[in-house]
Amino acid sequence: MAKKPKPTSIIDSIGEEIVRIITPVSTCMFLVVILVTILNTNSSDSPSSLNTIATVAYNETPSDSTWDKFKGALLNSLVFVVVVTVTTFILVLLFYLRCTKFLKIYMGFSSFVVLGFMGGEIGVVLIKGFSVPIDCFTFLVVLFNFTVVGVMAVFMSKMAILITQGYLVVIGMLVAYWFTMLPEWTTWALLVTMALYDLAAVLLPGGPLKLLVELAISRDEEIPALVYEARPVSYDDELGGRGGVVERRMWKGGSRVGSDIGEISNSNPISNLESDSNSTLGEMLAPLVQVNETRLVVSEETSELSVPLIDQRANTRGQEDDFAVEGIGLGSSGAIKLGLGDFIFYSVLVGRAAMYDFMTVYACYLAIIAGLGITLLLLALYQKALPALPVSILLGVLFYVLTRFFLEVFVVQCSLNLLMF
Amino acid sequence: MTVAAGLGYVLLALGPSLTLFISVISRKPFLILTVLTSTLLWLVSLIAMSGLWRAFLPLKPTVWWPYVILIITSVAFQEALRILFWKGYKRLENILDAFADRARKPRLFLTDKMQIALAGGLGHGVAHAVFFCLSLLTPAFGPATFYVDRCPRIPFFLVSAIISLGFVTIHTFSMVIAFNGYAEGKKTDRVFVPVIHLVAAMVTLINIFSGGCLVGIPLLYFITILTLLHCGRTVWRRLTENQSRPE
Questions:
Q1: Is A198 one of the annotated active-site residues of the chain?
Q2: Cis peptide before B16, with omega less than 30 degrees from 0?
Q3: Is A135 a catalytic residue?
Q4: Which chain B residues touch A357 with a CB distance below 8 Å?
Q5: Reported pTM
């Protein structure tokens, strides 16, 4: 008896874009946690004081009182945010003056520095820790090749998408690991202040990121920044028959824009050059999140299929909006793009949680993914530039505090008595 | 005791869930999102309970009756959350059906609904295993092991992994039974799930007494097998009913 082919159900395809962005974020966080666990047990002594832009105001020592640490951490993060703001404004200026080539070259240069020096340093520590039998010439050649391919992946858009994605995740991981080496209070204060700054920079009328987004929209150009692009999802139905598909470009502001460009040039004179290569990395990767939505087309049915999570209200609103005529893109199928800065700060939070215990890691991971989901839903609802950091970071910090002070005691108490529910 | 042992404990507690995840859930992105949501929900309920009980902990090791109250309150809270989860799922089902109608695709099949219930249950189970077993396994990756006084014959990590395996199974499949019960309106299924949960949690109370784990763990597995059988029977019945009544 011939079996009738089962018609595909809708839950086969809904939510695929979200999963395609959650996977690399999770991978990056996982790699950072592994790095933190391995490298912090190998060198079990307390981290040496880092001389970087983030600790220029105050260097935490274990003997300070809590209030001192708190004040010092706030001071550090304020300095950091000021530097970031200045740099972002410089970036907006450069973008306005159409110095795109300069920005792209600087992007490549900064990827080279991150992959080459930071990657090399971590490679050396791993080799020392695991006593891998490799000589320095082989190591140098391998490292050089690795770095060059990474720079090309960032520069050229014709590279295989998996390689580009892989390299972006590696760059995010390396920068995030560097950030976790900052003292504890500074890291937490930095995360919270960056989340608040992100909120301000994207939503306030004078914010640099808002200006950047508006500039890019009005010129219909892509911002040259390190941005992770998920593989686009293809829908194999009525979309093929649609002739004039009007595409809209939706923007979702990430962290500060501008990859490591201005930051590296700024941090060099300020930070101390005699410490290890860490000083050159007083930067933050801060690309913008662009959500390229082919989805919000004029016709209702295709839009429904393409944006399954958008509420019905949002769809009707999208049709009336004159936004639809702007930004007529071509062929670039909708794929969610997430800025690398978001990757980095999520991973920093989880890496810091890993330095305490694994329970906080799991709790913070779930909080961050929940925040990311909420941000994507808000984006679908409001359809304008939204910052990706605040919700996740604030949820993550909240869950960290709750887990560390409440959950751990409870679970350990129950578990040690073999009492589970 | 070394990375191999640590990995072994992890796989012991989470092996079947991993298999389920790879074979059933990872094919449909929506189910992955369901697993993540229900894991988060379970974590939130656990944090709420720990917030509530923080003032009373740590409990003295000799008395055992506060643990009874602890268990009853925690299980009651989690079952209440399950009902909330069901309500949220109903609303989601309506949205999905409306969306399917507009997109001219078939509505949710019975197997889809069961898969969503399974994903929800798996999320609960994985959350349990992660927070009660995995997060305490960090020392197991090192060079030594640990024994608890009350169960001195088996390493603590092994015992907690075995108990977690039982609970993961119970959580996963009782969600399927529960959703079925709420959907069909059967009183027995609706009552079955909270009762099983409470009984299983109470059974672990036996572990508090010295040498209790020799009795407690087999009892727990008896309950697990009971849940599995009941779930299998319910699903089989639903599917054959559905088959004989083509819509």
A1: yes
A2: no
A3: no
A4: 135, 138
A5: 0.82
